[in-house]
Design a protein that fits this description.
Nucleotidyltransferase, domain 5, 5-stranded mixed sheet, globular
């Protein structure tokens, strides 16, 4: 039986995972995709195989799977019963790697302690990402764990792109623009070489539009600029996050509304964005169905800001050759793509209506000056690839140590 790599993305009440088999020639084959959701409330394990067929659908009482460690125990039990053995390595999505972690890294106690300092910069994600690593480290210490960072893809920006207009000492202490969704952008950069090689090395903007949303300017497959900054609050409006906002608003909330830092943090991460603007929902699907004018305003604002950032990122690139839509909204909401492209018609972008409606690869017309694409992202496969490379390096280094 071939060895497997497990990819884990842990949330506050869920564990999303995928299992990849390592075939001959180190080819990765997706075997299982699943999640344990509703931890502590309505816990349920749902797993599908590569063909989309259900492999498991199990529910438990809330008191049986109350917390993350119990959910991970259930996942380990499932893997042993249905796969026959544990994976040879686990790859984790870790949202924030700061300025030091610029590539996938084997997790040690020292690395784990270092990553803890970034919890305030990604409070929705980092604590849960690290919690899963700690639990595995405690219960299965022999398993190789690899942290793959959403910030790493952007870590080669010049200082002029990464700094804020504040005293230099803060930049040196880590207050700088990091950018996020790097695993998604890295995957798309690779896919462009397969599906559109004629533009892969040119000036490309990728719009990762999901509940969390950002945009990236790429030149020759490398990140040049990102819409996100110090935290995952910046840039585009998101499902529940405001995106770009005047720092004076935060001061106003403190001084005039009497909100403390915890209240402001919760407000910015949970009550803003499409949810706050519409007063209806953080889900674009709900807003598209709604006839409420506030829903329309929220969507119009979302589209408007995307178009504005295209202009900003194109300036960083010195022009634009292609625009790529990806992630949940980018891949599945043709109305949003059309609205964005219509706003950008002044650039010579022209939509191919039928191709867009059918979610085809190329959605710009033959006459369009800028090529526009819809490319599904696959962050899990990117993590699996990184984890396999680290696994091979780690095995080689261990062998050399034994020989020495």
């Amino acid at each position: 039986m071939a060895d497997n790599i497990l990819v884990v993305n842990t949330g506050s009440s869920s564990i999303k995972f995928q299992l990849f088999g390592i075939e001959q020639g180190d080819r990765l084959v997706r075997r299982l995709k699943g999640q344990i959701e509703g931890i502590g409330t309505r816990p349920r394990l749902l797993v599908k195989n590569a063909d989309g067929e259900c492999e498991a659908d199990t529910s438990w009482r809330p008191d049986e799977v109350r917390v993350l460690p119990e959910a991970l125990d259930r996942l380990v039990t499932f893997l042993r019963e249905h796969v026959g053995k544990l994976p040879v390595a686990i790859g984790h999505r870790v949202v924030h790697g700061g300025s030091d972690y610029i590539e996938p890294t084997v997790v040690t106690s020292r690395v784990l302690a270092s990553l803890q300092q970034f919890v305030p910069l990604a409070p929705l994600h980092q604590p849960n990402n690290l919690a899963a690593i700690r639990i595995v480290q405690d219960r299965q210490p022999q398993l190789l764990q690899v942290a793959c960072f959403d910030t790493a893809f952007h870590r080669h920006h010049p200082e002029v792109a990464d700094c804020y207009a504040i005293p230099e000492k803060f930049y040196r202490s880590g207050v700088r623009r990091y950018g996020f969704h790097g695993l998604s952008y890295e995957y798309i950069a690779g896919r462009l070489r397969d599906v559109a090689p004629e533009i892969a090395d040119k000036r490309v903007i990728i719009a990762h539009l999901g509940s969390g949303a950002s945009m990236c300017a790429m030149l020759a497959g490398k990140s040049v600029e990102s819409s996100m900054g110090f935290t995952a609050l910046d840039g585009l409006p998101m499902g529940t996050r405001p995106g770009q906002i005047d720092a004076g608003v935060v001061l106003y909330l403190m001084n005039q509304e009497g909100m403390n830092t915890n209240e402001i943090e919760h407000f910015l991460y949970h009550d803003c964005g499409l949810k706050g603007l519409s007063g209806i929902s953080n889900d674009v699907r709900d807003l598209l169905k709604s006839t409420d004018p506030r829903a329309k305003l929220a969507l119009d604002y979302f589209v408007y800001r995307i178009a504005l950032f295209v202009g900003t990122l194109a300036t960083a690139l010195g022009g634009l050759d292609a625009l790529v839509f990806t992630a949940g909204i980018g891949e599945n909401a043709p109305q949003i793509r059309k609205a964005v492209m219509d706003r950008l018609s002044w650039l010579g972008i022209e939509l191919a209506e039928k191709a867009n409606a059918n979610d085809e690869l190329r959605i710009s017309s033959k006459r369009s000056d800028i090529s526009c694409f819809v490319i599904p992202t696959d962050e899990e496969l990117m993590i699996a690839r990184h984890t396999l490379r680290v696994l091979r390096r780690h095995a080689s280094a261990t062998l050399e140590e034994k020989r020495a």
